[in-house]
Amino acid sequence: MRGAGTLDAMRSEAASLPGSPERPNEDWAAAALPASGSGGTVVLLDGVTPPAGDDGCVHTVPWFTARLGGALTELSGSRRDLSLSEILSLSIWRTADAHRDTCDLSHVRTPQATVVLARWDETSVEHLVLSDSVLLLESPDGAVRAVLDDRLDRVPDEVRRSLAATDRLRNREGGFFTAAADPAVAGRAVTGTSPRAEVRALAALTDGASRWVELFGAGDWAGCFGVLREEGPAGLLRRVRALEAADARAAGRTGGSSTTTRRRCTRSWRTAEPSGPAVEPLGSHRRAPRAPPPSPSDPTAEPPVVQPSERTLKWCRRRASSATSARSQSASLRT
């Protein structure tokens, strides 16, 4: 926080590892500070690796995450007049517009990603989480809260072992949602706002990094944040890789026909501020088991459409003739 005789300071660290040396890293992470020097934003995407076969797109997942991540970084840092949901909607629209003439964006496996987005200023911290990446929020007293979108976890394992059954639940009511080509999916994200004074630091983790808690049970979210603080994001990833190498459960978890990222990329991000947000209280170090959702009577039925706001539509129309390609970003350490 900025006060008399003080300076607003932020320190950020990032680390990323591909799930396999044979595949490119499909994640995206960025942090930005506005020119005013007040507040900031963090963006984390975990690109979804499609199964072998046609996905209707001539582009790679890294192509998609770079463009979506670039748009999210730009808009979250420059458009304070838009909510995070509106920013995600506009970013999806812009990315889809970059390849709608060459690709079948209606394909269920068109390139897509999980999303974590956080933005703060002098008074508040906003957050958005879509799919199974995690946002951790640390309060001044050291308590850690987790923001989770657990809809993918609710899908029964027997369903996720079938590509066809999983596809019927992808971006559909009763299933789970990722950022792909439909801007309306932004209305499905977990969002919230907290007083900045209630949080001093935050961390964004893909599901590969969050395995330390959720798969291996090596500690709770507070312990995970402690590893980040003491060893940095690279230290957490080293711990996860050591557990993967030693525990046969990892092979069983990553080798199936799951829809997303458990076999691929691991990334963690931490950015420390004098204060920040808080959301869902942490009741357990694992996501609570939920009863599976009822099967839709018609698995092929289209889900209800969440329409973008009129402000979003007007902005899209203004941008339609001059879509801007995303700028590449790099992680940096600020103290």
Report what the structure shows.
Strands 1-10-9-6-7 form a 5-stranded antiparallel sheet, with helices on one face. The radius of gyration is 19 Å and the shape is globular. Strand 6 and strand 7 (144-148) form a beta hairpin. It contains 9 helices and 10 strands. The chain has a single domain (16-281), classed as 4-Layer Sandwich (Phosphatase 2c, domain 1). It starts with 10 loop residues before the first strand and ends in a 16-residue tail after the last helix. It has 335 residues and is an alpha+beta fold.
Describe the secondary-structure layout.
Blueprint: E1 11-17, E2 27-32, E3 40-47, H1 61-78, H2 84-97, E4 113-120, E5 124-130, E6 134-138, E7 144-148, H3 151-154, H4 157-160, H5 163-169, E8 190-195, E9 201-205, H6 211-214, H7 221-246, H8 248-254, E10 266-272, H9 310-319
Antiparallel strand pairs: 1-10, 2-3, 3-4, 4-5, 5-8, 6-7, 6-9, 9-10
Relevant terms:
single chain; 335 residues; alpha+beta; Phosphatase 2c, domain 1; five-stranded antiparallel beta sheet; 10 strands; 28% helix; globular
Q: Care to give the gist of this entry?
A:
28% of the residues lie in helices and 19% in strands. With 335 residues, it is α+β, with helices and mostly antiparallel strands. Helix 1 crosses helix 2, helix 2 (84-97) packs parallel to helix 9 (310-319) and helix 7 crosses helix 8.
